[in-house]
TrEMBL record:
Record SUPFAM superfamilies: Pili subunits
Keyword Chaperone among record annotations: no
Name the UniProt record assigns to this protein: Prepilin-type N-terminal cleavage/methylation domain-containing protein
Pfam families: N_methyl (PF07963)
Superkingdom: Bacteria
Biased composition (Pro residues): 272-283
Amino acid sequence: MRRRTRSTAHHHRLGFTLIELLVVIVILGLLVGLLVPAVMQAVGTAKDAAVAAEIRALSQALADFNSKYGAYPPSRIVLREDGNYSSTGALGARTVSYLRRFWPRMPVSTTGAPTGIPGGFYDFNRNGKLDTDVSYILSGPECLVFFLGGIAQGNSTGGWSMTGFSKNPLNPFEILTTNRTVPLFEFNNSRLEANKSNGAVFPGYLDSLGNSYDSTQPFYCYFSAYGGAGYDPGDVDFAELNDDGVAMIGAFKTSNAATPPAGQSIVVGSPAPNPYTNDPPVPTQNAAGKGDVDTDSPKYPAWQNGQTFQIISAGRDRRFGIGGQYLANGNNRLPFVDGNTSGYLQNSFQTMQANATVTSVTLGPNTRSVEKDNITNFSAGKLD
């Protein structure tokens, strides 16, 4: 009898077929395609939250400054090492009024060179000598760092560190290693960078969304309300361009521009960035007037945070935009409307026509879209 034998030739498949591999690759690709945008969005949201938290911390530091010195810092000043502000105009007068409020015994004068400065002068640029022919103008970003951090000390690597102010009431700007106040905000030294417009003498503070100083100027912008007197749009000018290379300039009626007529407000065109208002930044006419500027109206703009200050980050796109009207509620929070349309009412929205009349620059209806990702101290998260 023939013995039947079982075949031992069992073939075990040790891998995937080409078709199966392709299917796996396609599935993985789909999963990656779904996950990457979600991850990127989560990362972006986390970065936005970090900026919002830092703005809150800066706001608290400004509140501490107000408690200590009796007022919030101004957002544009001029500094003279000889203390002589006799030729610095309205900006010098503003500076002197604040320096005297913060440091009453500090020798400054609007009529000539004062006496009694310890060491003979204020060494703002830390070069060890008196510079009588130089006036250093600090705009909003530098003022934010200067008043919260004190004197900025350069280091060997080209960076900066904040050293507070001297406790000498006659010269709070002495360069001493001891007997100094502690900065009211702990600035990240790697994000302190000089604003090249003032000769790299005073740094501003970069928000954490940017990498370095460039044409978009990603500093935190600071605007002071000057105790309720009104914002000065000229306190921060970066001269941004839109996608067509056109200067983005906003129209404002302001009660404390740098050189206003006595007792009057004036209408100004101010390069981006600018502070924010609740209503149109300039009085505007009705549809019959084509949404143009109403020059007969005495109306001042109602400012966001009208008694304190505004801090603004440019957001992820690194652009501030022209600023102006911001509506906290509603679908169109950053209006820039055609005043010719029947839906427009007098002084209800910021119009393109009024802006063009003041600035001589015609901007399109989508100009303010760059502001949607701006982060401020008066909005919860991004503006839109």
